[in-house]
Amino acid sequence: MKFEKKAKSQNISAQKNSLLDFLKLAEFIFGFFIVFLGKKPSFMKLLPHLILLIYLSNFRIFAQNFKSNYYYLGAVFDRRDIGGQAIGNIYIADSSVPKPFYLPNGTIHFFKNKLESNMVNSRDPYFVNLSLKTLFYKESLDNRGMVNGQFDFSGSFFIEIGGDSITVFPFKFHAKYRRQIAETQKLIELLGTRTSELNRKLEVWFVENYAKNQKLGRHVVVNSTDFTPEIVDDDTLYFGQRKLTVNDFSPKKAKASNYAATVFTSMGYQSDVSMRNDTIVLDLQMKVYQVKGMSWILEEAKTNFVVNHEQTHFNITQLVAEKFKERLKEEILPPQDFNSRLQFLYLDYYRQINRMQNKYDSETKHGLDVIEQNIWDKKIEYELAKYKKNHSAN
């Protein structure tokens, strides 16, 4: 509540200052017409001149009411090598020796006051932090008593999401100037102008990147579906196309093997990433497939029983894929590193496939134990049916 009251108070104050500035401009132009033209101007004659002066003053009246739909200044970090100290040595009147120059009320207060005029319209703004790297004035005095100087100002804006610091964009300004020795206020104005430019650049960056740049992702949503091939591949059968037949196996036997048949099944995924406001949307297509060129069967083993044993191997791969998709629904993926976490989970479930396949072959004795084979067939089919029912309900 204190934060909201402070923000409202700043906004009201800015509006009052804007109105006063406008009235001063109007008074100046009105007086100009009376003194030099000897008559009062009509409003229509007055209006274009007001607009021109507002434009030439760099929209100062309206700039104080600048509002961002995306962000609010969170904090200012003075990370200069001389952080918290003077921002240079400058020449002042009645002194031939440069004196340390400090911003009014300190560096951090100056920037917070300058940037906090951005009143947020958004319900869920980004809190942007300013990291100050350099801020320094360097001056010399010529033989005419004029001050020649250069101004260096650099740093970056960053946001924090999920404990990670993400740089929005870095900035760097360098300017040369010339002033009268008494015009020290110009130094504040120079910095103020550059800070106002940063306001505009930051807003433009958000306009161009919001709902597009994954840097601004604060959440990750995963949508998982099963891959459906558009073209039938004679060597690859995707789960769900149909059940295995003897024609899905090569008619040759692997060397030094004691088994009647071997099926090669695997799972993978392809992903498409998009942005929806501040949410990263990960559309995942699961691929569970069998490869004919890496699967084989003996001529004398071409029976329904043997093919059924290999079909359950295929079913097991699909079951683990379903478990993987279910896990992704519950998993809170880190927005800035969701791919690494996704890969970690994928490899974990891929290993589960191997463990489950080995357990299946061990308990069924590679299909020779008819009772165990029947138990496994029914168990895997029951588990798959539950997932299929859940998919239908959703």
Description of the structure:
The chain is 42% helix and 26% strand. The chain has 394 residues and is α/β, with parallel strands linked by helices. The strands form 4 sheets. Strands 2, 3, 4, 6, 7 and 8 form a 6-stranded mixed β-sheet that branches. Strands 9, 10, 12 and 13 form a 4-stranded mixed β-sheet that branches. The longest helix has 36 residues, at 2-37. It is rod-shaped, with a radius of gyration of 35 Å. It starts with a helix and ends with a helix. Mean pLDDT is 84; it is low at 1-18 and 52-65.
Overview in brief:
This protein has helices spanning 2-37, 43-56, 60-63, 107-115, 185-209, 304-330, 338-364, 370-393; strands at residues 67-68, 71-78, 88-90, 99-100, 119-120, 126-141, 147-161, 164-179, 219-226, 236-238, 261-262, 265-276, 279-291, 296-297. With 394 residues, it is of the alpha/beta class.
Give the SSE map.
Blueprint: H1 2-37, H2 43-56, H3 60-63, E1 67-68, E2 71-78, E3 88-90, E4 99-100, H4 107-115, E5 119-120, E6 126-141, E7 147-161, E8 164-179, H5 185-209, E9 219-226, E10 236-238, E11 261-262, E12 265-276, E13 279-291, E14 296-297, H6 304-330, H7 338-364, H8 370-393
Parallel strand pairs: 1-5, 2-6, 3-6, 9-13
Antiparallel strand pairs: 3-4, 6-7, 7-8, 10-13, 11-14, 12-13
Helix pairs in contact: 1-2, 6-7, 6-8
What share of residues are in beta strands? Answer: 25-35%
User: What helical percentage do the residues reach?
Assistant: 40-55%
Which spans of ≥5 residues are poorly predicted at pLDDT below 50?
A: 1-18, 52-65
Q: How large is the count of helical segments?
A: 8
| Element-level helix/strand string | HHHEEEEHEEEEHEEEEEEHHH
> How many beta-strand segments?
14
Mean pLDDT: 84
Derived from helix and strand composition plus strand pairing, the structural class reads alpha/beta
Biggest sheet features: 6 strands, mixed
Gross geometry? rod-shaped
Spatial gap, N to C terminus:
41 Å
Rg value: 35 Å
